[in-house]
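Example (one chain per record):
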Amino acid sequence: MPGNMSFDELTTEVASGGIDTVLACAVDMQGRLVGKRFLASFFVESAHGETHGCNYLLANDIDMEPVPGYKAANWSKGYGDFVMKPDMSTLRRIPWLEKTALVLCDVQDHHTHDDLPHSPRAILRKQIRRLEERGWIGYFASELEFYLLDETYDSAREKQWRNLTSASPYIGDYLIGITSKEEGYMRRLRNEMHAAGIPIENSKGEWGPGQEEINVRYAEALEMADRHVILKNGAKEIAHQMGKAVSFMAKYNFDLAGNSSHIHNSLWSADGKTPLFFDKDADWTLSELGQQWAAGQLKYAKEFTWFLAPYVNSYKRFQAGTFAPTKIMWSQDNRTAGFRLCGEGTKGIRMECRIGGADLNPYLAFAALIAAGMAGIEEKLSLQKPFIGDAYQASRLPEIPKTLREATETMAKSKMLKAAFGEDVVDHYLHTARWEQFEYDRRITDWELHRGFERY
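Predicted structure:
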C-alpha cells in the first residue's frame, strides 16, 4: 500500500483546488523529514522531476548545526547542493494539513544523480538489493511508543521539561478506561494516519502514565521505514494542533518507563506469498534460514547497537526491570530478552528486536538488522538454544553496550558493517556518534549542578 495517490490524481486535485501544497521531503540522519513546501501547481508542472537542498542536511547534528569533520560535506567544499528526487510511489494526502500532499525523496549526488551512499534511504536500499538478489523480501514492522502530555511544546519548554502533566496520572497499560480519556488524540492519530495510506492496526496504553503505543501494519522494509517517519512527524504535528505535546525520547524521565521501538523482521519469497522462516518440522518451527538470520543478529548486536540507540540518552533506557532489554540473547515469548521469537508455529513467525528506542532512525536500524541477518546466513551460523528465565538476573549473558561511547567504539571495529555499508558510510556515522558524545561531554547537566553547586 505505498502512498495513497497517483501523480495523475494529484494533477486532478491541483486543478480542482483540492490540493494547493506539496511537501517534498528527504530524511535526515536523525530520521526527521526535511524539505520544501511547493505550490502544488509548480510541483506538478516542474518540481516533480527533482528539487535540491543543501548537502549539510546530512552533515549536521540534531540542533541543525553544521558539524566539522565530515568527508562528504564541509566548509572547504562549500556545502553545495544535493538532488532531492521525488519517489512518486510515496505520494500521499496528508489529512491533518489543509489541502496538502507529501512525497518522500531519494537523495542523490548533484552531478552524477547517483544515490548518496550515506543517505538513510540509500543505505537501506543497498541492503534490500542484497535480499532481492537472493529472491527474498524483508517484511518489517516497528512498534512506536511515545508519551502524550497535556502540555504544549511551549509550556514544556517553559517548565524546562520538568514536572510535566501527562495525559493520565497513572500507568494505563492496556487499560481501556484510562485510555478512553486519551482517545481524542489517539483516535485522530489512528484515523488520519490510515487516511494518509499508513494502515494502523491498533493503539494501546503502555507502561507509563500517558505513554502510548501505536502499531502499523507490517510492510516491505523500505515502505515500513517510510511509514515510520511520516507517523512520527504527523504525531507531533497533530499534537501541536490539539494543544498537546508528544515525546519519542528514549528516556525523558528517570522515574518512568522508556520509549521503545521494537522491530519485527522476517524473510519471504519475492512474491510475498511464502514465509521463509516457517518450518513446522524445525526446532521452534523456525527454519534453518531463520535460525541463521537470528544467529547473525545476535552475533553482531553489539556492533550495530548504535543504529538502534544513536544518542547519549538512548542508553538511559536500558534498565533492569523496565521491559527494556539489557542482555543480548533470544528467547521464546520472553519480554526480558533482547530478541524475542514471535508467531511460533505460524506463517507469521518472526524475530522481534527489542533493543531499539523510539529515537532511532528506521532506515538505519532496518539496514543494520538486514546486514547482520545476511552475515548470519552467509556464515551459516547456528542458533544457540533459547534462554529461559529472567534475563535481567542472568550474569553470564553478553550485555548490550551501556553507553554511547562503548557502542561507538564497538561499531568502529565492525568488519561486518564496513563490508555491508562501505567504510565511508560507517565512518560518516561514526563521526556523527562521536560528535554527539563530544557535545554531551562538554556540557554541564542539571544533575551536576544539583549535586555539586554547594556541596563540592
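Caption: Residues 297 and 372 are 5 Å apart (CA to CA).
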